[in-house]
């Protein structure tokens, strides 16, 4: 498994607008080979910003790299640098990637 995580600093008071951007966009992720799951997490607020993190799980690094070079990736990121996002966010997102070394799951 391969995890990609983007951390976002959202200006206080802009949380609903930020969440709407994510909820209303067509990410195309479910159409991409090797995609496993996506989650958007809301964190604490401090010093005028709220922390968010998006986690996307992939079957492999190759699957993630394929996604970043795909038409689906370009389509889903249209407008990411738009003025609206600059008004919402306090700086650019920070990408972090992780390769799984251990995985525990609950089974029925």
Features:
108 residues, alpha+beta, Alpha-Beta Plaits, four-stranded antiparallel sheet, 4 strands, 35% strand, globular
Largest sheet, described in full? 4 strands, antiparallel
The CATH C-level class name: Alpha Beta
Give the helices and strands as they follow along the chain: EHEEHHHE
Secondary structural class: alpha+beta
Spans of at least 5 consecutive residues whose pLDDT stays below 50 are none
CATH topology: Alpha-Beta Plaits
Approximately how much beta-strand content do the residues carry? 35-45%
What is the overall shape? globular
**Main β-sheet, spatial strand arrangement:** 2-3-1-4
**Rg over CA atoms:** 15 Å
Question: Percent of residues in helical segments?
Answer: 25-40%
Count of the separate structural domains: 1
The count of helical stretches stands at 4
Report a brief summary of the structure.
The chain is of the alpha+beta class. The chain has helices at residues 15-24, 61-68, 71-76, 83-88; strands at 2-11, 35-46, 49-58, 94-99.
Structure in words:
The protein has 108 residues and is an alpha+beta fold. The chain has a single domain (2-98), classed as Alpha-Beta Plaits (2-Layer Sandwich). Helix content is 28%, strand content 35%. The chain is globular. The mean pLDDT is 89.
Please render the helix and strand layout as text.
Layout: E1 2-11, H1 15-24, E2 35-46, E3 49-58, H2 61-68, H3 71-76, H4 83-88, E4 94-99
Antiparallel strand pairs: 1-3, 1-4, 2-3
């Amino acid at each position: 498994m391969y995890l990609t995580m983007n951390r976002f600093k959202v200006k206080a008071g802009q949380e609903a607008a930020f969440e709407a951007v994510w909820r209303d966009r067509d990410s195309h992720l479910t159409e991409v080979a090797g995609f496993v799951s996506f989650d958007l997490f809301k964190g604490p607020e401090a010093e005028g910003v709220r922390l968010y993190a998006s986690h996307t799980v992939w079957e492999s690094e190759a699957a993630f790299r394929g996604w970043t070079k795909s038409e689906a990736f370009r389509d889903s990121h249209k407008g990411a640098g738009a003025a609206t996002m600059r008004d919402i966010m306090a700086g650019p997102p920070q990408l972090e990637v992780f390769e799984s070394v251990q995985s525990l799951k609950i089974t029925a």
